Structure formats: C-alpha cells, structure tokens
UniProtKB/TrEMBL annotation:
Keywords: Oxidoreductase. This is aldehyde dehydrogenase (NAD(+)). It comes from Pelistega ratti. Belongs to the aldehyde dehydrogenase family. It holds the Pfam family Aldedh. The active site is at E244. It is an enzyme of class 1 (oxidoreductase).
Length: 473
C-alpha cells in the first residue's frame, strides 16, 4: 500500500492542508493499492503565491540558464526512465510497448525544447519595432491520467523555456506517477516556486486555478466538457487558455492501399493506450465494395496480433481500463452499439476476457457496417472499440471524416500521394498522419472544432507561453 501524502510547493515537499483521502485500486487486480491525501483550495493558493513570487525573478533569467535546467531535467528523467515506465504500467495499466514510447517522448520533450531555445529569437525585429516575446506569467497546468508525466513534460518544458512558472494539477488517479515527477523536478534544482505540484480534485484544485486572478494562463488537456467549464471560468480574469480535448479520429483507407498491412495497422491505431487516447483512430473508413475483405482481415488481426493482457508482458497490446467506473462506461457503449440496429459486432463485445476477470479489462471490440450517425461513431468511448464505417467514394470519405464535432487526429493510408494530399487538405483536424507515420514531436499538435484550441510541441508549443510586446521607436 502506498501512502501519498505530500505535495510540492516552493521547492519543498509539504503535507497538504487538505484532509480528504482518496483510495486508488490496481486496474489489473482490483486491489486497493494507494491512499492519496488530496490538496485543497488553500494548498492551491499557496502554490499559486509561490509561482507568482518566483515569476518575478524567473522571467528575467537568461536563455542559457533555462537551457541548463531543461538539459538537466532531460538527463535526470533519462536516468529515472525505468522507474517512470514501471509506475505507469502499475498505476495506470498502460501496456509496456506503449508506456516505453510515451516515457521516451516525455524525456525527449526537455531535450527538444532546449535545442529549440538555442536558436530562438526572443526579440525579433518587425517593421521598425523590436518585438519582445515575454513570458505570459503563472501557468496552471491541468492534465488527465492517460499520459500524466508525458503531459507534464510537454507543457512544463515549453512553459519554463518561455520563463513562466507553473502550478501543476495532475489527475488524482496518477498520484504515484506524479510523486516521481516531483522528485525529478526537485533534483533538477530549479529556483524555488518555479514548478509546484498540487494533487487534488478537479472541482477543488482545478476550479481554484481557473478562478484565481494570479494565474495568467491555463494549459489544459482533458475532456471537452471540462475544457468548456475551464474556458468559461478563465474568461472572468481573461486568462490565456490552451485546450487539448477529446477526439473521434477518422482513419481513411484508400482502395489502392495494401489492405493486408493497413487493416492490422488500423486496429493498432485504434487500440493505442488501450483505446484510452485522444488521437485513437476509432473510426475506420473503408471502401464499401471492400467491406467483406476488411472484416475478414480485422477478424484475423484480432485473433493473431492483438493481445489483451497484463501491462508488463512484452506482447500485450491492450491493458486494462484505468478504473472500474471507466470500464463500466466502455461496457455501456458496447451495449449501445449492440442495441443500435444497423451495426454488426465483428469481435469482442460485453464482459471481460477469459482469465482477466479481476481487472478492468475490456475485450478488443470491433463493430462493422457502422453508420456515422450511431452514438458509438459520434461519441468518444475512450476504450478499445473500433467502428468500421463504409464509404462510397473519396468525397463521401471526406464528408464522413469531417462529420464529427471533434477535429484532433486523422489518418490516411494509400499509395497515390496526390490523392492523399487532396484528402489531407480537406480534413478538418489538427493533425493528419499518412501511411502509419503516427507522430512528429516537433510538429504542432492540437485540435480543430471541439477538440480545443492552441497548439503544443516544438516552436508552436513555445509560442503559446509568450506575449508579444512591441517596442516602437
Ligand atoms: P477530465 O476532463 O475528466 O479531467 C482532466 C483534468 O481536469 C483532471 O485533472 C481533472 O481533475 C480536472 N478537472 C475536472 N473537473 C474540473 C473542473 N471543473 N475544473 C478544473 N479542472 C477540472 O478528463 P480525463 O477523464 O481525466 O481524461 C480523458 C479525456 O482527456 C478524454 O476526453 C481525452 O480525449 C482527453 N485527452 C485529450 C488529449 C489531447 O491532447 N487533446 C490527450 C489526452 C486526453
């Protein structure tokens, strides 16, 4: 049993003022594994005050000093990588192969930002003026559980590069992963108050960050509904806001694609992070006349290539859902899919896979002949549930891909690059991945439509923490 009873404020591990205790359960065994003392509004105000004071000095640090912190954070994280991987697999149940990818990405975020900073001009000349790019101020970092330390790395590396200070509100479900991250930041020796951690509830800590006038910007990753609440609350004090929200990504397979590789790859793209990913390719759009072939390939891939299992096993592709509540939500969607008249359940379905009854495991599920109007095709399920949707022609595929309130990720597989570029141009999403190239950690990442606004990663990510001030004359 892990007792997690410290938060990190002004360079010190402190006991929270809050007294509420949250119990966390293993997603694999269902056993109680952690007790977390939750921070409250007073803790949050203390953290914001520390970040505000630290900002008065940190904003004027020179670039070389900030690069030094970033490189140090990178090096410490690289040394602690295995610990980060192990705890993420245990606490969240993320399969090993994907956990390693996520944590490697997180480690690299610090190096990438340091490299960008080396050549970044904070005082470009525009017209007759010097534009001074200044740090926006105290940043509230509010994040979900599905790649907790990855989000911290992406957001905080950019924020401190700009000279901002941070109050991080991780998901209370990631308390152990957060503890490791606090240790890493402490070891890096940043000035006191530059980075603070307040683990607590969204409606308590998150709400205080949203309303507190001393917070200048919020960077949020999470659900579209909470994103809307934050955007409304932040408007009162005109905070700058970056929102990375939900998704329902289309994956278009063109008829000239190599289906034997494209279909198994499409399943993996849906099942990344056990389906608990905002960019999961949950809507597989295939040519109507090839539907039977696609169904056969999908069934084979489920049988031979997809394994629901323990996160630590090397060949596991799908681990458990994060909580039993979330497991139930996914079951409800599978039930809805079965009840809705049109679609056919091709694989998986309700209940737990054999031998994995104790944890929050969901069967790798595929519905085929799905209409884009069905709830399972419109709403974010956040579990391993794929919808195969047939399209008539290219224009129909584009229309279906865009017929969603979301616009985060999109995928296209095919041979004819001209055709792919034509479609990519017409897709309303912040990121279009071609032929299985799933990620570029220097490219901007963010949403169109109700998937949010603002961008992260690379230079675009850094810009989000800067206010341009024109010095004219
Ligand atoms: P969530 O929106 O429930 O919670 C996210 C964070 O917001 C948590 O720390 C939570 O405590 C906090 N929060 C909750 N209510 C709040 C309030 N009223 N005020 C301030 N903060 C509050 O999301 P979740 O269930 O933890 O994560 C899953 C969601 O995150 C999915 O919708 C997924 O698509 C999205 N997500 C988006 C991206 C992206 O980059 N676009 C990445 C990963 C996950």
């Amino acid at each position: 049993m892990y007792d997690i009873n410290k938060i990190y404020i002004n360079g010190e591990f402190v006991t929270p003022h809050g007294t509420e205790v949250l119990e966390l359960f293993s997603p694999v065994s269902g056993e109680k594994v952690s007790r977390v003392v939750l921070a409250d509004e007073v803790d949050t105000q203390n953290a914001i005050a520390a970040a505000k004071t630290a900002f008065q000095t940190f904003r004027y640090t020179d670039k070389a000093e900030r690069i030094g912190y970033l490189r140090k954070l990178h090096d410490i994280m690289a040394v602690r990588k295995q610990d980060l991987v192990d705890v993420m697999m245990e606490e969240f149940g993320c399969p090993r192969y994907f956990t390693e990818l996520l944590i490697s990405g997180a480690v690299n975020d610090f190096k990438n930002m340091a490299d960008i900073l080396e050549n970044y001009d904070f005082e470009p000349i525009v017209g007759r003026s010097k534009v001074r790019l200044q740090a926006v101020g105290v940043v509230g970092v509010i994040i979900p559980w599905n790649s907790s330390n990855g989000f911290i790395a992406t957001k905080v590396s950019a924020a401190i590069s700009a000279g901002c200070t941070c109050v991080i509100k991780p998901s209370e479900l990631s308390a152990r992963q957060t503890q490791l991250m606090m240790e890493i930041f402490h070891e890096a020796g940043l000035p006191k108050g530059v980075v603070n951690f307040v683990t607590g509830k969204g409606t308590v800590v998150g709400a205080e960050i949203t309303r507190n006038p001393d917070v200048n910007k919020i960077t949020f990753t999470g659900s579209t509904n909470v994103g809307k609440t934050i955007a409304k609350g932040a408007a009162d004090t005109m905070k700058r806001v970056t929102l990375e929200l939900g998704g329902k990504a289309p994956n278009i397979i063109l008829d000239d694609a190599d289906f034997a590789t494209a279909i198994p790859q499409a399943l993996f793209a849906c099942y990344i992070n056990s389906g608990q990913a905002c960019v999961a390719a949950t809507r597989l759009l295939v040519p109507q006349h090839r539907l039977a072939e696609v169904n056969e390939l999908a069934k084979n891939a489920i049988k031979n290539m997809v394994k629901v299992g323990l996160p630590q096993e090397n060949d596991t592709t799908i681990g458990p859902m994060v909580t039993s509540n979330h497991w139930q939500t996914v079951q409800n969607y599978i039930h809805i899919g079965i009840e809705e008249d049109k679609a056919e359940l091709l694989a998986g379905g309700l209940g737990k896979p054999e031998g994995l009854e104790n944890g929050n495991f969901v069967k790798a599920t595929v519905f085929t002949n799905v209409s884009n109007q069905m709830r399972i095709a419109r709403e974010e399920i956040f579990g391993p549930v794929l919808c195969i949707i047939p399209y008539k022609d290219e224009e129909d595929a584009i229309a279906i891909a865009n017929d969603t309130p979301f616009g985060l990720g999109a995928y296209i597989t095919g041979k004819d690059r001209k055709r792919i570029d034509y479609i990519a141009e017409r897709i309303d999403a912040g990121r279009v991945c071609i032929n299985g190239d799933f990620h570029d950690d220097l490219a901007p990442f963010g949403g169109f439509k109700q998937s949010g606004y603002g961008r992260e990663f690379g230079v675009y990510g850094l810009d989000a923490y800067l206010e341009p001030k024109a010095i004219i004359g």
